[in-house]
Amino acid sequence: MTQQSDDTAAYTPPAVWKWDKQNGGKFASINRPIAGPTHEQDLPVGKHPLQLYSLATPNGVKVTIMLEELLALGHSGAEYDAWLIRIGDGNQFGSGFVAANPNSKIPALVDHGTASPTRVFESGAILLYLAEKFAAFLPADHAKRTECLNWLFWQMGSAPYLGGGFGHFYAYAPFKMEYPIDRFSMEVKRQLDVLDRHLAENQYMAGDDYSIADMAIWPWYGNLIAGNLYGDSATFLDTQSYTHVVRWQQEIWQRPAVKRGRKVNRLAGKPSDQLHERHDASDFDLRTEDKLNPEG
Ligand SMILES: N[C@@H](CCC(=O)N[C@@H](CS)C(=O)NCC(=O)O)C(=O)O
Fold first, then answer.
1. Ligand 1: does its nearest atom lie under 6 Å from the Cβ of 249?
2. Is 80 helix (H, G, I), strand (E, B) or coil?
3. Is the CB of 91 under 6 A from ligand 1?
């Protein structure tokens, strides 16, 4: 391993990059430069048509919020089984998961309610799939639908700068480097300003109605604003100064479906907020970690 003591040390890339398994960082043990399964492992299938394989990261939470919102709206067909994928243990590289998502990332959804099972991967595609399946949280009017999709795709393109860029170098890299932290802080603050200016004039991302665009953006930028991501990053980025994003974040946080969706497949935080697997609506009352493991 070539360890730099600080970011001023020079690095000359070799002619051909080689995989150094010891290159450090929080996710070094699961990162690898090749795709495909590492082991045989079928995915479990529960009683509902919709089977979700996920973890409560911001990308995972988008989908559980959407499913809980659909159920709150009375779409009983949105009942789902949520299975836990422990990405730190490499569950995403099991053969069953790779068949559901060849990209080996949570979330992945399999709909057994179609003539043959439909796999859906990429959180944005899952939100769109569910919105179309249930005709909900996506405006029917073409212009409004386009605006909703503008913001959905904005999130899919922007969040990797927040997570893979800023979050990685601010919180997870093996040592602090000024250049990437500067570069990605500047970009994330620019993104927050984009949101702030838009939310100054719109209640929700797609206008007057709450939609899948809000569900995609809130788990990332709402959690960042609320100080739930990457240590002291909310202070570092002065997120409270984006007052319209703060208003929007708080409004969405009041939604019961958001509070429920955030708990599903969660492995960290208060035990009462962790519902490792969800197979029934009653699980929120009966099967959170404080109930299943009262001794901790
Ligand atoms: N663009 C993808 C990103 C999904 C993603 O990055 N998932 C992460 C957790 S948030 C993951 O599964 N990481 C495991 C790995 O990289 O091996 C989406 O929105 O679904």
1. no
2. strand
3. no
For 54, which DSSP code? E
Question: Is residue 138 within 8 Å of 128, Cβ to Cβ?
Answer: yes
C-alpha 49/C-alpha 206 separation (Å) is: 29
Say which CATH number the domain at 172 has: 1.20.1050.10
For the record, the structure tokens of 128 come out as 């769109």
CA of 59 to the centre of ligand 1 (A): 7
Token pair listed for 64: 């559980």
Would you list the DSSP string of 13-60? Answer: --SS----TT--STTTTT--S--S-SB--PPP--SSSEEEEE-SSHHH
pLDDT-derived band at 178 (thresholds 50, 70, 90) equals very high
Domain range enclosing 217: 142-260
The DSSP bridge partners found for residue 207 are: 204
Instruction: Establish if 250 belongs to a structural domain.
Output: yes
Domain membership of residue 294 (yes or no) is no
Tell me the per-residue pLDDT of 252-288, one tens digit each, with 9 for 90 and over.
999 999 999 999 999 999 999 999 999 999 999 999 9
Q: Is the CB of 263 under 6 A from ligand 1?
A: no
Structure tokens at 290: 């404080």
- Tell me if 51 sits within 8 A of 121, measured CB to CB: no
Model confidence at 22, in pLDDT bands (50, 70, 90)? Answer: low
User: Does any ligand 1 atom lie closer than 6 A to the CB of residue 105?
Assistant: yes
CB 103 within 8 A of CB 35: yes
Number of domains composing the chain: 1
